[in-house]
User: Fold these one by one.
Assistant:
Number 1:
Amino acid sequence: MKKIHFALILAALLVAGTSCKPKQSAYKQVYEAAKEREMQQTASQPTTVVKDANPLPPVEVSVRKEKVEPVYPTDAAGLKKYSVVIASLSVKLNAESLKTRMENEGHQVILAENEQGMYRVIIASYDDKTQAAAKREEIYSHYSAKGNTDYLRKTYGVPFNDLWILERQY
């Protein structure tokens, strides 16, 4: 009888010990779901071609229209119609952390929040789409010419080859 009780207790402990392991962390599931929504939104937005005065071929720039508001009142004056977005994050603390790191590198960063609660990390903002496109190209060229895109992806978690322009809706 004691052997049966011992075997049942051992089996119960074995089942309990193996069933408590999570398959995936809750944070990872939420992150992946948000990233999937972001990718679907990006795919559904039309890509426009911005032509500049130079005889170079036109630069294709991803432009998205959104209603956004600055997170901090001090950023309100700097948030213009067209903004270069380097990251979209769902967690405010992560967006603030990226903002701080980019400001330490000399960039003037603005945080804006859209209606869905996503935080847009903006590295430059202009009233003119051509200026925004030129700044986007400058940032991308600066980091990709030096081979720094992998370094920046590891350091900031931001794929700098995926910069896009936000057209602010009021």
Number 2:
Amino acid sequence: MDSTITLMGSIVIGALFMLSVMTFYDDVIEHQNVRMQEMWTQESMASVAEIIDYDFRKIGSGVANASQAIVSISDSTDITFLADIDNDAVAETVRYYLSDADQAPNTENPNDKILYRIVNGTTTINTSAGVTQFSVKLYDWTGSATTELNDVAIIDIFLEVQSEFQYGDVGYPVARWQKRVTPVNIIRITNQNL
């Protein structure tokens, strides 16, 4: 009788131990999958941010009158500027704008939008890449917000990228990038006007 109780107790303890090992293993796998999605999201954000950073730093290069380098900004998600981005001494017209969520491709994430980059009328980036937010804010040389395009000396850029796929209850992993850019070609002209 004692050996039967001992055997049953051993089976119960063994089963509980196996259950806890399996639960631990499932948690490790889930954590690893979430980290992989977060890493993919960060890599996606970094590749888009690198292009944006390069283009915005070049604003005003190759332009005779750099105070007119920013052509238009219709809202914080749509900006057009002049910049010699391919270093051929000729300024290109570059436009960045964010689509509405309903124009994005069908992904699991309902917040996805398309970030467009158009150079001289040719679309060079047309991807959601998980982009959910893109915005720019313009400031003059004193750091005050401005709507006067020829007074712009500083540009704040914000980009948010979310995973295109939700993982369990975790939601959509998010990566954010924010940068304040002071294009050298614009600041020279602004300082000369003082």
